[in-house]
Design goal:
Low-confidence stretches: 124-131
Largest sheet: 4 strands, antiparallel
Shape: globular
Helix content: 10-25%
Distance between the termini: 38 Å
Mean pLDDT: 89
Order of helices and strands: EEEEEEHEHH
Number of strands: 7
Strand content: 25-35%
Structural class: alpha+beta
Number of helices: 3
Strand order of the largest sheet: 2-1-3-4
Length: 131
C-alpha cells in the first residue's frame, strides 16, 4: 500500500532529515525527488516526514535507532530489538537507515526545520526562528 498523497506537494512523498556537521545548518535532506530510498545515505538520520491520514496530516518519525520502510510502504522507526523482531519473524522491511544521537540543541534545530518544511505545509511559527 503506497503512502497517501502529500496534498501540499504531491511530488514529495517523504523526506529524510540528516545530521550533517559539515553543513552550516548542521543538516541535509534527501527526498524521493533525490532518488529512491535505497540510495539515500545510510547514517545520521534525525527525522523522516511523510503524509498520513489520507494526506491531511504529517507523520514525523524521529527518536529511533533505525529507520526503514515497512510492509505497507511507510517509514517506521525502531530500536535494536524491533529490528531483530522483524528479522526473526520475516516481517519485510527495506531501505534500512541508521539514526544518530546528537546534542539536544542541534536535535531541536533540525526538528524545527522538519516541522517548518514547506513541502509538508510548514508552520510559520517555526519558520520565524530560522535564520
Amino acid at each position: 500500500m503506497p503512502l497517501p498523497i502529500n496534498r501540499l506537494n504531491p511530488r514529495v512523498r517523504w523526506k529524510i532529515f540528516y545530521h550533517d556537521p559539515d553543513s552550516p545548518t548542521y543538516h541535509t535532506t534527501w527526498s524521493n525527488l533525490d532518488g529512491p530510498a535505497r540510495d539515500a545515505p545510510v547514517d545520521g538520520v534525525i527525522c523522516i516526514i511523510q503524509p498520513m491520514d489520507g494526506g491531511r496530516a504529517v507523520d514525523r518519525v524521529a527518536g529511533a535507532d533505525f529507520y526503514a520502510i515497512d510492509e505497507e510502504g511507510k517509514w517506521i522507526g525502531m530500536d535494536a530489538s524491533g529490528l531483530q523482531d522483524r528479522r526473526d519473524n520475516n516481517i519485510p522491511f527495506r531501505a534500512l537507515k541508521n539514526g544518530r544521537w546528537i546534542n539536544l540543541d542541534r536535535y531541536q534545530e533540525i526538528m524545527t526545520r522538519a516541522h517548518g518544511d514547506d513541502d509538508f505545509g510548514g508552520n510559520g511559527r517555526f519558520r520565524k526562528v530560522l535564520p
